[in-house]
Specification:
By secondary structure, this protein is of the alpha+beta class. Helix content is 31%, strand content 19%. A 3-stranded antiparallel β-sheet has the order 2-1-5, covered by helices on one side. A hairpin with a 4-residue loop joins strand 7 and strand 8.
Length: 222
């Protein structure tokens, strides 16, 4: 038995590759290419998911042997495929993996393309980057000898002003922590993320608008 959130993730990952959900009542194929919007699932995908949840035993992901209802209630699990690493259904009662949805996708896996993903919380993601950079700086400054690095990082997390932030036209964020960190670290966080250069404050920009003017104004006021 698989949790509803994990089954939803499973459907979302494969739908990003064009794999539809099939209704066994009328052989209707349901799908959308707009699966992720900003930090959450798109309204189109949420509506499709609600349709599936109304009769989960009548829907299955194309080219898979079990229904959505089987995953939610039966002896099935979702585990990474050995070939493509995405989730595939596995029948626990017979210790047998069902065919992975990638079996009929000639173009997948493709190492030149990014993997399908879940929605990402931008603030949590960048906070972890900041925390890692502060920890690396503390280690390079020798604060690890007889000092609680985590305590120093927690004290410094809201007051660090040594990070220089640059944003290129493509929306990538470059974070330079200076010589103490040994160079530049670049993070592709998408064009809907903003970073305040003074205190690394995180803020969201309108994903439908051009982020460069808002970002330039934010940096000019810092």
């Amino acid at each position: 038995m698989v949790s509803e959130d994990r089954v939803k993730q499973y459907i979302a990952l494969w739908m990003q590759l064009g794999k539809p959900v099939v209704c066994d009542r009328d052989n209707q194929h349901l799908g959308t290419f707009s699966v992720i919007r900003g930090q959450s699932y798109s309204p189109d995908f949420e509506q499709l998911w609600q349709t599936i949840c109304q009769a989960p035993h009548h829907y299955h992901l194309a080219a898979t042997p079990c229904s959505i209802g089987d995953l939610l209630e039966g002896h099935w699990d979702l585990l990474p495929c050995a070939r493509c690493t995405l989730l595939q259904p596995v029948n626990e009662s017979v210790i047998e993996a069902g065919p992975c949805p990638c079996q009929d996708l000639a173009s997948w896996p493709d190492d030149n393309l990014p993997l399908p993903r879940q929605p990402i919380n931008n603030q949590d993601y960048l906070y972890k980057i900041q925390l890692r950079l502060l920890r690396e700086r503390a280690l390079l400054q020798g604060q690890g000898a007889g000092t609680d690095i985590n305590a120093d990082i927690n004290a410094d997390i809201n007051t660090d002003t040594n990070a220089d932030v640059g944003v290129n036209a493509g929306g990538d964020i470059g974070v330079n922590v200076g010589a103490n960190a040994g160079g530049d670290i670049g993070v592709n966080a998408g064009s809907d993320i903003g970073v305040d250069a003074n205190d690394f404050e995180l803020f969201d920009l309108d994903v439908d608008a051009d982020p460069k003017p808002a970002m330039a104004s934010k940096l000019a006021n810092s």
